[in-house]
């Protein structure tokens, strides 16, 4: 299956915002575009994010994988144990779209013949809130007072805030 991806920096009208308004929704694209591309990457208040459209649901998370900064916007989406996950193309880490949990398969060494079971490493990837209004997709960054492992790479690759956002 071919993957289509678009990148949007600023394709929606921007209202008066300032650097202190990081908790306000920011438009990142159009719903008709993501229905075709299945994903878009964008920069929201300097933070690189990816928005996935999977099974008619929108999911936003930090663009860089919590493990080693891999490009999640290039990862495949797979169903793992009943959960939609993005698979990091660098090291095949599995991250749930809905919660940002890292998943792994565990084997009980006392019973190695038993099928491995999927387990959670906990919330590793920061996810963000996505809303749609009048055909525009908006992302609201999550509360940064809580720490996630993906914050390291989000900070490392932080982009300067676009001048039009500092009115």
Automatic annotation (TrEMBL):
InterPro entries: Rieske_2Fe-2S (IPR017941), Rieske_2Fe-2S_sf (IPR036922), Sol_Rieske_ferrdox_dom (IPR054716). Its cofactor is [2Fe-2S] cluster. Residues 26-139 form the Rieske domain. Pfam families: Rieske_4. Keywords: 2Fe-2S, Acetylation, Iron, Iron-sulfur, Metal-binding, Phosphoprotein, Repeat. It comes from the Eukaryota. This is Rieske domain-containing protein. It comes from Geotrypetes seraphini. The gene is RFESD.
């Amino acid at each position: 299956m071919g993957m289509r991806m678009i990148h949007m920096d600023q394709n929606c009208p921007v209202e008066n915002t300032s650097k202190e308004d990081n908790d306000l929704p920011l438009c990142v694209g159009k719903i008709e575009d993501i229905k075709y591309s299945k994903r878009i990457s964008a920069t929201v208040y300097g933070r690189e994010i990816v928005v996935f459209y999977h099974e008619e649901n929108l999911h936003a998370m930090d663009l860089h994988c919590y493990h080693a900064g891999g490009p999640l916007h290039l990862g495949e989406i797979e169903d793992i144990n009943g959960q939609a996950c993005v698979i990091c193309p660098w090291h095949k880490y599995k991250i749930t779209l809905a919660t940002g949990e890292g998943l792994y398969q565990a084997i009980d060494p006392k019973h190695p013949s038993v099928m491995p079971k999927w387990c959670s490493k906990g919330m590793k990837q920061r996810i963000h809130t996505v809303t749609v209004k009048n055909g525009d997709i908006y992302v609201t960054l999550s509360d940064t007072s809580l720490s996630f492992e993906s914050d390291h790479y989000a900070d490392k690759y932080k982009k300067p805030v676009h001048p039009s956002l500092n009115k």
